[in-house]
Specification:
Layout: E1 2-3, E2 6-7, E3 11-14, H1 24-51, H2 58-75, H3 78-87, E4 91-93, H4 94-127, H5 132-135, H6 138-163, E5 173-174, H7 181-185, H8 193-227, H9 232-260, H10 269-294, H11 296-314
Parallel strand pairs: 3-5
Antiparallel strand pairs: 1-2, 3-4
Helix pairs in contact: 1-2, 1-3, 1-10, 2-4, 2-10, 4-6, 4-8, 4-9, 6-8, 8-9, 9-10, 10-11
């Protein structure tokens, strides 16, 4: 629809796969495998924590929410990517793009704060183990989790509202695999400096840097507590309880900071969209693998579940 020589965009074309020198069917199968593994792994973690009485601990409670977040997170992007690959229908409606962006930011922001909550949980478990179950009561666990979701909802609303308030009058080809803020800002025909400011101030500082600094402080206290332990065995056990969480944090914040915490002028979308894809697709797949391999309680529950399954098959 023409209006004062400008074209009002009613849909976007997902052009992220155009410059990838790989057959569409290969990419479809690869994404489908990743999506299936991610759903299966996180769903298994979620179900086994909810059904196994031995895993009804604060840390496992937060881990079940992390698994649920990862299921939602990858489901906000991959199904549309699979549709693009198999049907060649690359268009996504204006509303559909806005909803996809909203849910991506919602789950990502919530995960930032949930990881910070898990760091606080590890701090209490190591620094005050005798009062751990009293401090990390079910009520507090639910409150902390709810707070994480509230932050995610607020940030997603602010970022999505600002992004889709700017006019899109020209090209509608999004150089990405899904709707994300940086490639959308490049399509705008107006000044986006306010959007970038809010992105860095709210998304970067409050949602990204805030929880990250809290995590650093928590682990600073954890490290100080561990170093004061006289028993080498006790120190090793304390380190092992934090290992899986630290690995997840490293992947989540390492790739995330590279993807989002840079000025617009330094973006090279052809390169950064691959990093962003890793961040949004591979990370949710890695989380259940990391916790299954590093968490003794989860491994024990997994062995018990497999043992029961084998016994049921034999009978």
């Amino acid at each position: 629809m023409a209006n004062t020589n400008l074209t009002v965009v009613t849909e976007f074309i997902m052009a992220g796969f155009d410059d990838i020198p790989a057959p569409s069917m290969f990419l479809f199968v690869l994404l489908l495998v990743i999506y299936t593994v991610t759903l299966g792994g996180n769903l298994f973690i979620f179900i086994i924590i909810r059904t196994d009485q031995h895993l009804h601990t604060p840390m496992c409670f937060f881990l079940s929410h992390l698994s649920f977040l990862d299921i939602c997170y990858i489901s906000a992007t991959v199904p549309k990517m699979l549709e693009v690959l198999v049907s060649k229908q690359k268009a996504i409606s204006y509303i559909g793009c806005a909803l996809q962006l909203y849910f991506i930011i919602l789950f990502e922001s919530t995960e930032c704060y949930l990881l910070a909550v898990m760091a606080y949980d590890r701090y209490i478990a190591i620094s005050d183990p005798l009062r751990y179950s009293t401090i990390m009561s079910p009520r507090l666990c639910h409150q902390l989790t709810m707070f994480s979701w509230i932050v995610g909802v607020i940030n997603a609303f602010i970022q999505t509202r600002l992004t889709f308030q700017i006019p899109f009058c020209g090209p509608n080809h999004v150089n990405h695999f899904f709707c994300d803020i940086p490639p959308l800002l490049q399509l705008s025909c107006s000044d986006t400096s306010l959007n970038e400011l809010v992105l860095y101030a709210v998304g970067g500082v409050f949602v990204g840097l805030g929880p990250f600094l809290f995590i650093l402080v928590s682990y600073g206290f954890i490290l100080a507590t561990i170093l004061r332990m006289s028993s080498a065995k006790g120190r090793q056990k304390a380190f092992s309880t934090c290992a899986s969480h630290v690995i997840v944090l490293t992947v989540f914040y390492g790739v995330g900071s590279f993807t989002y915490m840079r000025p617009r002028a330094s973006y090279s979308l052809d390169r950064d969209k691959l990093v962003s894809a890793f961040y949004n697709i591979i990370t949710p797949m890695l989380n259940p693998i990391i916790y299954s391999l590093r968490n003794g309680e989860i491994k024990s529950a997994l062995k018990d579940a497999l043992r029961r399954q084998v016994k049921a098959i034999k009978n």
